Amino acid sequence: MPSVYKNKRSVINRLIFDYLFSHKYIIFLALLMMIISAAATGLHAWLVRPALDEVLIKGNKEMLFLIPLAIIIVTLCKGIATYTHSFQMSKVAHSVIAKLQTHMFEKLMYLNLNYFNESKSGNLISRLINDTYYLRLAIVKSVTAVIKDILVIIFLLANMFYQSWSLTLFAFFAFPLAIWPIKKIGKSIRNITYEIQNEIAKFSNVLAESIKGIRQVKAYNREEYEKKRAFETINFIKKFFIRSAFVSNRLSPLMEFIGSLAVAVSIYAGGVFVLNESMTTGQFMSFLVSLLLAYQPVKALGNLNISVQEGLAGAERIFLLLDTPLEKSEKHGVSSNIKLNGNIEFKDVNFSYSEQKILNNINLTIDSGKKTAFVGMSGSGKSTLINLLLRFYDHYKGTIKIDQKDIKSLSLFDLRENISLITQETLLFNESILDNIRYGNMSSNDDEIQAIADISGVSKFANQLPDKLNTIVGESGIKLSGGQRQRIAIARALIKDAPILIMDEATSSLDNLTEKEIQSALDELMKDKTTIIIAHRLSTIQNADVIFTLEKGIIESNGDHEYLIKNSAVYKKLQLQEDYNDN
Description:
Blueprint: H1 8-20, H2 24-46, H3 48-57, H4 61-109, H5 113-118, H6 121-163, H7 165-171, H8 179-212, H9 214-219, H10 223-248, H11 251-275, H12 281-322, E1 344-353, E2 356-366, E3 371-376, H13 382-389, E4 397-402, E5 405-406, H14 412-417, E6 419-423, H15 433-438, H16 446-456, H17 458-462, H18 482-496, E7 500-504, H19 512-517, H20 519-526, E8 530-534, E9 546-551, E10 554-559, H21 561-567, H22 569-582
Parallel strand pairs: 3-8, 3-9, 6-7, 7-8
Antiparallel strand pairs: 1-2, 1-4, 4-5, 9-10
Helix pairs in contact: 1-12, 2-4, 2-6, 2-12, 3-4, 3-12, 4-6, 6-7, 6-8, 6-12, 7-11, 8-10, 8-12, 11-12, 16-18, 18-20, 21-22
């Protein structure tokens, strides 16, 4: 895949003016230190001339003392300057990467569900970690070295011109030959690196899916299949890296050959000048030392261009995420910290996803403080109603109101702060039970969480654990049973204490015994709240005030359990299915 940003300057300009410019004073200090370090290298080469002409040839004893002293002082200054500019530029690079990562993560947090449905988590993680790694290296090592090496070359070139401008012209006739291959190879490396980063993103995704779904992998004996998926991606990455090495390693022998040409011509021409006495031995040796010292930074610049191109390829993918169109972001608005009662109304609501009609002309009312249930076969649109109420998707037709307020007129913070959600797949973070409950209300203290843990039944199992509520639950709560995870989810909703409670298949993954055990916690949670229950098992919603039956995105009927068992074809079908499963 070719580079997305066709204009290389657009990436460089954004890096400089949006991220590097705010560190201009530190960069200026580092640049000053680079100048001192480069000047010291040039001075070292210049000192060769008096060392030969004054000390060895003329026998000047005063210079015999002064030149070694000068070399020590110059070396000390160079060491301090090199340390300072390296440290300061490292600090800038880490600050820039941290800023980019915060911007990317912030962008991700406010993108809508459509974006995440269309994206792979491994790809997003790779941009935050792998792409920023390449860019960090480019700033810390490459950019610093590029500036320093250019300065070193300038100072050494100045000394060479000072010693003999005519010999300098002879020496540097070969170096322009290197410009085209350096540019060509750098461009190739940038495109290859872009491909490598895409493949690493794919590998990250395969790795995340395999590890997260390890139970399914083992249950279905799919180890070999997962190995095949991973090995294919690993081989792609290997091929791209080999291709990158094949291209980049051409540069070193090319620069070696060009450098040897320059040295050979200089020795021949310089020898002629010395023999003709148009140049002293000290001048020639100072010139030759400068040329040899200049060879290394010139060669390094070619290799550093490769690292710079790798960093720019990473920057392109980073900005691709940061430039995600606004229509894929949620519109949050300004919070008014309002408290809702929970009267909900759907009026003429239609919703399609990927051109597939999901909801068709939905009209219904949910009264405040009542328990309302939605039932239907899979794909009937039950969970979509909840997604629209929470504004996970905004591209629906019709209106949804809470307390006569269109939910699109509310800030997302206000809307969601008034709704507690418990889903079938309980997500727990790899932190303590205490912190997982506190996630519902970040301002709650430990005593409040302990009281909620007692009510929800979390304390019943937590007290049996060595660290009680401070026990780390593991990734996705893997150290706990399904019932224990569900209790924590209930506790999290209890601590939030929102006026609207949504339970989307909240107990469908639990057995009947476990469900009955946590029923008292659920009853406590639903007290005085507008409760919406999405359920497959009718036994869990028989005491609901109103039950809506859905079929293919249409409300088929509504009423209480007794009414629907007599008058709803969908409800009867679900009841028969449940009776069959129980038997």
